[in-house]
Specification:
2 copies of one chain form a homodimer. Chain A is an alpha/beta fold and 285 residues long. Helix content of chain A is 44%, strand content 15%. Chain A folds into 2 domains: 117 residues, Rossmann fold, CATH 3.40.50; 148 residues, Rossmann fold (3-Layer(aba) Sandwich). Chain A has a 4-stranded parallel beta sheet, sandwiched between helices. In chain A, strands 6-5-7-8 form a 4-stranded parallel beta sheet, with helices on both faces. The longest helix of chain A has 18 residues. Chain A is elongated, with a radius of gyration of 24 Å. The termini of chain A are far apart. At the A-B interface, α1, α2, β2, β3 and α5 of A face α1, α2, β2, β3 and α5 of B. Chains A, B: It comes from Enterococcus alcedinis. Chains A, B: InterPro entries: Kinase-pyrophosphorylase, P-loop_NTPase, PPDK_reg.
Chain lengths: 285, 285
């Protein structure tokens, strides 16, 4: 019985009047709870007319899909509800409950402007600057970036410095990173900045060894090079740990952490806020 | 009455056993519907024990917060529900409805492993590669990247090429980009690739003019430089449009689009899937 069920593919339809990021993340979080099931996600984004919505719903019905939607127009929400009730389709309205709670508390109507999440306000410039900053000061390219950065990431090879920098840049933070290798010169700027801005990334030697071996294989190279020798990795990590202690920075072991999880820990540890959409500080430059 | 309400700050508490990305996006989407209201978001992430959860809930109560949570442990969900009911706090369980629907359909229990969204699987490597690729082939640094890329973005200055490349890299796509300036040499590799992989970015001249002026001001420079002169902008855009026509690529005007919206359009137009968490294609290299 269970065997049969596992073999069928379950379908999510993400329907949104905007880019569908919220409902997509929810579909992915749900899918991750069932690694043994095959899923597919269809996205129907920028749905702002009744015709487009009905087309998406008919399509969803043909897949017997589970519908997750974020639609702000009440008439369209009603269309979706009625269609799904009549067709016996699972549907989950993600956006309405919190929007109505704010209305209940304040007596203020929502703007009901689709995609209001994505206005091109001053955050837009801040974010573009943060991303350009991350690209410019990636990989220790220019240590002068440390002085300007909100966060400086240090780490041996394969501790996710670049992806982490870019992920944090997406949250409007200026991030510079520096690879730590025993032989390398440590730029003097590192000692000039507040250690509370520095994060030392480390990893378990065995995991690092496996990651590096896989990397070598994926590059079509011999996995047993010095780069992946465990003794060398241990001495690299020791060198890094010693440096982190001298600097007095926080240290995060990324061994079992995803980029999202590490980023979230950095935000918490450094007391930084995710300003990806809203800036509450009026003193922003 | 309304005036008074606007002045108070409304608080969201995002409580998650993982990084809290889904509920954060939902809080932001809700906040965007009420531009006249002051909001704050508090994140309580990696909450996996009853003690930590109760601490977060007590804190939320002291802020009279609206609680959005994604918690997979049923006992913890029950604790949150009971606490919020007893305290009269608004709470919205974002994750349970779709998880239970999958269980209903398949008879399979969810793994109930917190943060299951973020497993370090082969996507991890694909994503790291995609991000490194975006940094390496940003800004036309090396046109050989075009041949390897999933998407090649072309655009005049300030059409969000770098942020877009990084955003798409986060969805595991290899993206290269090239700034289009009338005087510049167009690399021959551009004519060797499938035009279906190329996206030409354009913008409204007036908006571009304003963006560039603001950029000059933010850099402490005179806003009325050649860089922001409208005639020059128009001729740049004409040059770009001509090139796009010759290439036969799709063209997107980013004038009123956010990065998320443009990225979503590119995914749709190029028939690409968001593989940020799951790869369904078994033939992946």
């Amino acid at each position: 019985m269970t065997e049969t069920n596992v073999k069928e593919t379950l379908t999510f339809f993400v329907i949104s009047d905007s880019a569908g990021e919220t409902a997509s993340k929810l579909a992915q979080a749900t899918m991750a709870q069932y690694p043994m099931i095959n899923f597919e996600i269809f996205r129907r984004t920028f749905i702002t007319t009744k015709d487009a919505l009905i087309k998406a719903l008919v399509d969803a019905k043909s897949h017997n899909a589970m519908i997750l939607h974020t639609i702000i127009n009440q008439e369209l929400v009603q269309v979706a509800d009625d269609f799904c009730e009549a067709s016996g389709l699972f549907h989950f309205d993600v956006l309405t409950p919190p929007v109505l709670e704010v209305q209940r508390r304040t007596g203020i109507e929502p703007t009901r402007e689709p995609g209001a999440l994505h206005h091109l306000n001053k955050n837009y410039f801040k974010r573009i600057k943060a991303m350009e900053f991350a690209v410019k000061y990636d990989d220790g390219k220019d240590p002068r970036g440390f002085l300007e950065a909100d966060v400086v990431l240090l780490g041996v090879s394969r501790t996710s410095k670049t992806p982490l920098s870019l992920f944090l840049a997406n949250k409007n933070l200026k991030v510079a990173n520096l690879p730590i290798v025993p032989q390398a010169h440590i730029p003097k700027q590192l000692w000039e900045i507040d250690p509370k801005k520095i994060v030392g990334l480390t990893n378990d030697p065995k995991i690092l060894n496996n990651i590096r071996k896989e990397r070598m294989i994926s590059y079509g190279l011999n996995p047993d090079t010095a780069y992946s020798q465990i003794d060398k990795i241990i001495s690299e990590l020791e060198f890094a740990t010693e440096l982190y202690n001298k600097l007095g920075c926080i240290v995060i072991n990324v061994a079992r952490l995803s980029i999202e999880e590490t980023a979230s820990m950095i935000l918490n540890a450094l007391n930084l806020e995710d300003h990806s959409y809203f800036i509450t500080d009026d003193n922003e430059d």
